[in-house]
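Severity: low
Component: inverse-folding endpoint
Summary: output formatting inconsistent between runs
Steps to reproduce: submit the following structure tokens with default settings.
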């Protein structure tokens, strides 16, 4: 294919991206040139007039997500919408591929990800080129359906009702199937049970009775297999329903023929048998497996249910001094809400009056209640423990933190990690390959098998068709991802997508921003030193320093004043206040001249600090900022201030090092201060004096050393480095921009979450590998056994009924193994 003089390969895909923010030819050229340089892009062109970038690319090497990220990094926007569509009727990995291909083929769809465990499709698309109507048609044309909702109806509730209804129907059919299959077995074993002594039933009459009982099992209890198979056949494809429908139909048709036309199978020394029991048992066992699977899949989404259940139903709004309980949906931004002890906070807001301690464990994973005073932010769904307070609503409905958490977890559960691509490739050829193997099995047994050859050929054909399980393959990855991301949410860890969850287990280097990440981000007084012979106490030094700082707005001054207030020291207002930027301050306290500042400031003021300089150097070497205090020309002491490490920083660093992860600290501080903080934290490597704009470059350098790098940060200036890292981890107490650029967000800001994230990733990927191993090993080993490879050596054949039981259990085993992740724990 030749586009504007450039040859485009046949496997190339086209993406039309609506770009916003371009104002001139230079903008469009910049976007075009940058996109053209990306690996996997064969041609890129940008039309300024219509605001669109057209990219031809190799989907095996790059993706639309990469183009969107690149355009945004250049400072422009991309009008991309995302929609999640609940789908009905999918049963196996082949169904997932079918729906995914149907959606991906639509013009304007950039990516489509279909998840069998959640039964949802997540589609990224251009609203100008595609819409819900197109998606609905594509899904229905593929032989499936979507969950429809009426205006104003809650889609989550509708989906839940439909799942419950489907479960009830499945259970009813299963019970009916069991009730009908039992008498079929009784008829089959009539002679062996000695019942012929009571009532003699001729063989052909027995067969006829089995036919009458089994037919409803075949065509009512098992009808869903036929509808699924017919839908697939209409689109010239196959799925798991095809295998079951063809396999059971073969046994049924053979049995019907033996019942009504027994002469067809009559050979010397052999009379025809029927296999109605086999067909009925296969259908019942597969339905039983699906029922177990549906129950287990329901448990995989418990994290979402728990989060959704946290939301209170009502809020007590104060209007004109009167309290009124209203539905949570009616709360508006600006409403003043009253919360009493023991009640849940209904929405996000800012505390106006009152104070309390709030249990935020359901959001952050931290068990210790957080003190709240006027001006502090409160989060919806957290629990007020002690005092009553009023707060002003600032985020309501789908904008609350709880709603955003639920949305992010749902998106992550619906996403697909790179490891799933292997499954996709295998699933696309799995069913046709199984049908081919089954056909070859039938021919080989029919031609070379012992008498009755047709019976042996039929039974082994059915066994191969039934035992193959693309269902286990389809569930292996998404069930683990669902439980893993849900478990992360329970621990205050929000994982943006399955790719981040997969990449995190390979991390071998973590870069920590210092301020606000390793440290608390606010200076505190760490040391008070008195000069020998001055006759002053610690309280005296703090009194003069804090009183002088009352006229200052410097953050170090705030730390000194806060320390004085903690010690209940009564401060005086300074007079003749004078600030010397970068050096110190000068003020009069009770008529005495007080100086507070660094060594240069003291020398400029002719203050002798020899007696204190040694201690000042020691404090400076420990990463603290020493400030000399002088009164009336005499140095009386030092107040040292530092940004101290967070409580769990040291424990988190140690835990990471035990996991074999190299720890790196990046900071704009000087090398001496940075080295001191690194020593306290136990950090392996320090990158000091790094400007904010150079943080991403330092991450890139580490990646060039073949390291898989995670960046942990909280500020706006960390966003480029978070985006550059293989995995960006944002502290949830930081800037929204940092969280937007990250792959993982730690809601509580505790660095234990970094350790938990990596451990959870390792546990989840290990679980996925176990599931895939089971699914592949099951099919690889048992399909040849079902085909009869053991018969020439050991005389062993696999009964189709056992094949059905094994197939049903393989899916249940995969889902049950994924549920083990719910017991995941990390202790530092």
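Observed output (run 2 of 3):
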């Amino acid at each position: 294919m030749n586009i504007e003089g450039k040859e485009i390969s046949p496997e190339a895909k086209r993406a039309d991206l609506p770009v916003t923010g371009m104002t001139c030819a230079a903008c469009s050229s910049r976007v075009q040139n940058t996109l053209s340089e990306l690996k996997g892009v064969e041609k890129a062109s940008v039309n300024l007039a219509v605001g669109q970038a057209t990219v031809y690319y190799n989907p095996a090497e790059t993706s639309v997500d990469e183009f969107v990220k690149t355009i945004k990094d250049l400072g422009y926007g991309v009008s991309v919408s995302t929609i999640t569509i609940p789908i009905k009727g999918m049963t196996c990995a082949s169904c997932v591929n079918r729906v995914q291909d149907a959606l991906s083929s639509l013009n304007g769809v950039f990516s489509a990800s279909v998840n069998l465990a959640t039964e949802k499709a997540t589609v990224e698309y251009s609203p100008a080129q595609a819409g819900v109507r197109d998606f609905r048609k594509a899904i229905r044309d593929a032989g499936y359906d979507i969950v429809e909702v009426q205006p104003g109806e809650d889609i989550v509730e509708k989906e839940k009702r439909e799942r419950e209804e489907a479960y009830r129907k499945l259970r009813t059919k299963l019970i009916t199937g069991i009730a009908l299959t039992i008498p079929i077995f009784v008829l089959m074993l009539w002679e062996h049970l000695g019942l012929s002594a009571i009532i003699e039933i001729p063989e052909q009459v027995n067969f006829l009775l089995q036919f009458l009982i089994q037919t409803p099992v075949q065509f009512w209890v098992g009808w869903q297999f036929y509808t699924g198979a017919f839908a697939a056949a209409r689109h010239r494809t196959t799925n798991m329903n095809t295998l079951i429908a063809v396999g059971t139909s073969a046994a049924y048709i053979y049995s019907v023929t033996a019942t009504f036309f027994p002469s067809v199978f009559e050979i010397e020394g052999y009379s025809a048998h029927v296999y109605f029991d086999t067909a009925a048992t296969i259908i019942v066992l597969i339905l039983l497996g699906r029922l177990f699977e549906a129950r287990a899949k329901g448990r995989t989404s418990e994290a979402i249910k728990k989060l959704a259940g946290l939301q209170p139903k009502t809020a007590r709004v104060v209007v004109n001094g009167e309290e009124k309980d209203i539905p949570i949906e009616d709360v508006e931004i600006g409403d003043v809400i009253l919360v009493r002890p023991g009640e849940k906070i209904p929405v996000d807001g800012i505390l106006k009056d009152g104070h309390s301690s709030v249990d935020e464990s359901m959001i952050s994973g931290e068990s210790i209640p957080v003190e709240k005073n006027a001006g502090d932010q409160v989060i919806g769904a957290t629990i007020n423990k002690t005092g009553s307070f009023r707060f002003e609503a600032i985020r309501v409905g789908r904008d609350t933190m709880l709603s955003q958490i639920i949305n992010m977890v749902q998106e992550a559960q619906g996403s697909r990690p790179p490891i799933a691509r292997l499954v996709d490739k295998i699933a696309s050829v799995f069913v046709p390959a199984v049908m081919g193997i089954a056909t070859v099995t039938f021919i080989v047994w029919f031609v070379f098998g012992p008498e009755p050859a047709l019976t042996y050929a039929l039974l082994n054909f059915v066994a191969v068709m039934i035992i193959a399980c693309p269902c286990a393959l389809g569930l292996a990855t998404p069930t683990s991802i669902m439980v893993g991301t849900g478990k992360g949410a329970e621990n205050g860890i929000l994982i943006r997508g399955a790719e981040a969850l997969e990449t995190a287990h390979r991390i071998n280097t973590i870069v920590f921003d210092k301020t606000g990440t390793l440290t608390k981000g606010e200076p505190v007084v760490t040391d008070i030193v008195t000069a020998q012979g001055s006759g002053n106490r610690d309280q005296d030094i703090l009194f003069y320093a804090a009183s002088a700082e009352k006229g200052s707005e410097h953050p170090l001054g705030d730390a000194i004043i806060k320390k004085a207030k903690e010690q209940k020291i009564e401060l005086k207002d300074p007079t003749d206040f004078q600030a010397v930027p970068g050096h110190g301050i000068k003020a009069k306290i009770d008529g005495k001249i007080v100086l507070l500042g660094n060594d240069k400031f003291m020398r400029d003021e002719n203050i002798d600090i020899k007696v204190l300089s040694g201690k000042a150097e020691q404090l400076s070497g420990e990463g603290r900022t020493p400030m000399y205090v002088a009164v009336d020309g005499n140095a009386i002491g030092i107040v040292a201030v530092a940004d101290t490490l967070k409580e769990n920083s040291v424990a988190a660093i140690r835990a990471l090092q035990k996991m074999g992860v190299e720890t790196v600290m990046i900071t704009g501080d000087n090398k001496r201060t940075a080295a001191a903080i690194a020593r306290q934290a136990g950090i392996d490597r320090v990158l000091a004096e790094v400007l904010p704009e150079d943080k991403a470059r330092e991450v890139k350098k580490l990646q060039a050393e073949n390291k898989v790098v995670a960046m942990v940060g909280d500020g706006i200036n960390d966003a480029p480095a978070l985006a550059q890292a293989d995995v960006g981890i944002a502290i949830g107490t930081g800037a929204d921009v940092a969280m937007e650029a990250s792959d993982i967000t730690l809601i509580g800001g505790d660095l234990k979450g970094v350790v938990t994230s990596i451990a959870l990733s390792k546990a989840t990927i290990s679980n996925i590998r176990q599931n895939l191993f089971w699914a592949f090993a099951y099919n690889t080993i048992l399909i040849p056994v079902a085909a009869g490879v053991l018969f020439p050596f050991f005389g062993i054949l696999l009964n189709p009924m056992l094949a059905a039981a094994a197939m049903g259990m393989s899916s249940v085993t995969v889902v049950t193994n994924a549920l083990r992740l719910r017991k995941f724990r990390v202790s530092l």
